[in-house]
Specification:
Blueprint: H1 9-14, E1 19-20, E2 23-26, H2 61-75, E3 108-109, E4 112-113, E5 132-138, H3 144-151, E6 157-165, E7 175-182, H4 185-195, E8 201-202, E9 207-208
Antiparallel strand pairs: 1-8, 2-5, 3-4, 5-7, 6-7, 8-9
The protein binds one DNA strand of 6 nucleotides through strand 5, strand 6 and strand 7.
DNA sequence: AGCACA
């Protein structure tokens, strides 16, 4: 009955024979408390007009998840195989909500779409969306340069950080975490939409691509 | 499954 621990790890290990699936998500908040400047209970309050995006005041993480899932489902972009890889939680720059910003190359310029955001001018974001993406499911031996190749084409790409961690379970192999910085949450969301749940690592070839 | 750096 201890198999439950490995319901996913097993899939990961077997993926080495097929194609590993990259899981990209928003960065997790630094802590569950202390982010609120006032120390009060208005947790999800944000200053901008939220009516246009259909968001209301959000009280906790689960609400955000639900709202985000809803909008993704409406857009029919992401398939939910794992369901857990999407974590658009608080943690961004709360002072700078991005509604309809199409600056810096994301979205449209003079009627022409740029970058990988082609076709969609903007992506509605949760008020507390982060500019950093969290990536897991990478092979333990992948290099920083390899992973950079995946994200560099996206507008607003800034930097990538690989982190080697030991498994929380004894005897299991170490794994690689990855944090990808973008100039703003909107640009991060574009990359997220494009990469979420996609299989990018061709383990047969031992490299990225097909 | 696993969330770092400033």
């Amino acid at each position: 009955m201890a198999d439950g621990y490995w319901k996913h790890g097993d899939a990961l290990r077997q993926a080495s024979a097929a194609q590993a699936s990259l899981q990209v998500s928003m960065k997790r908040p630094r802590s569950d408390h202390g982010d609120v400047s006032g120390g009060l209970e208005y947790v999800g309050y944000h200053p901008r007009e939220e009516g246009r995006m259909g968001y209301r005041v959000i009280r906790d993480t689960k609400s955000i998840d639900a709202a985000y899932e809803r909008y993704l489902r409406d857009r029919q972009i992401v398939s939910y195989s794992s369901g857990e890889s999407l974590r658009p939680v608080a943690g961004g720059m709360g002072s700078h909500p991005v509604d309809d910003m199409h600056m810096m190359g994301v979205g449209v310029m003079d009627g022409q779409s740029v970058g990988y955001g082609t076709g969609r001018s903007e992506i509605p974001l949760p008020p507390d969306a982060s500019s950093t993406l969290y990536v897991e499911g990478l092979p333990a031996n992948c290099t920083r340069r390899e992973v950079s190749h995946i994200f560099r084409p996206f507008a607003g790409f800034r930097e990538i950080r690989l982190v080697n961690k030991d498994s929380r379970f004894p005897g299991a192999d170490p794994f690689v975490l990855c944090f990808v910085d973008f100039s703003n949450p909107s640009q991060a969301a574009v990359a997220l939409d494009a990469l979420q749940g996609r299989g990018l690592w061709n383990s047969k070839a031992g490299r990225f691509g097909s």
